[in-house]
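DUF2804 domain-containing protein
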Amino acid sequence: MTTFEREITGPVDLCLPDGRLDPAAVGWSRTPLHRANLRGWGRTKRWEYWCVTTPTHLVALTVSDLDFLALNSVYLLEYAPGGLELERTAILPGGLGARLPETVAGSPGAPDVVTGPARPTGGKVRVEIRDEPGGTRLRARCLTPERVPVEVDLLVARPAGHESLSVVVPWSSRRFQYTSKQTALPASGRVRVGGEFLDFDGDDTWAVLDHGRGRWPRTVRWNWGAASGRTDGHTLGVQLGGQWTLGTGSTENALCVDGRLSKIGEELDWRWSPSDPLRPWTVRTPLTGQVDLTFTPFHNRRVRTEAGALANRTDQLFGHYDGTVRADDGTRIAVERLLGWAEDVRMRW
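Predicted structure tokens:
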């Protein structure tokens, strides 16, 4: 093992009855075991973010409740030069969006998540996350600014025994985050834009989940990187984090190799050019060499938002990872053009 963090192996509540972080919840697990019984208003943040990629295009869905507003979105990108890129984001003051469950939305036993009108008009967005016998069903609808209808219908499989990273990051007893990062999940389906259909049915279609529940400080900055695919004879999911976990004793770093998780307790060394984020990035474990990756972007999803109490400065770069990683059992994997992303985010909320 490459971490001294405590592994949690049984169900646990995130919070004590008074809303403070339960010390028994601090640690990580290979499957989602925390019940996010959050209390209080104003600093509580809940979200589900799914991104499903193919070699030629991707779609990302977000459902979020930030207390004072809800923010739900659909993002679609074709990688080819001049390819389609569209984003629809519905901002709902007062947090009048979907009620997000205490467990991972779309997992067995969790209530369905549905937000937005069945037939959205204008800038409205419909997102559905439902549990089905075959996995998690993701659906979305919106209109482009030109009033072209967009429909998303995807099924994310849940392979038996597939492990993921769930971890609590504790800033204090009053400020903390529980996140479940799930990589390298097979997915299938399609996206319709007007009369055109984008196929998500290949063997190289992969889904990544960022499930978040916590109580956050007013301002924060983070790096997040993820990638999924097949390389060097293995199915590999890469989960990388930075900045926001410093000094907490927890990290959100892990590898998923052929469905088995390797937790990385070492903080990563991220290097990139903030003035030119499309230049190559490097992400490494400086002490152990377990992660030694170069990320080469091909597209920047640049977001600048000022909406009252909310300010968001995001550079989310999509591209490919190359280099090497090492699993807990010593297996060294050559990473070649593994599709994913790396982002630099500054948030005031």
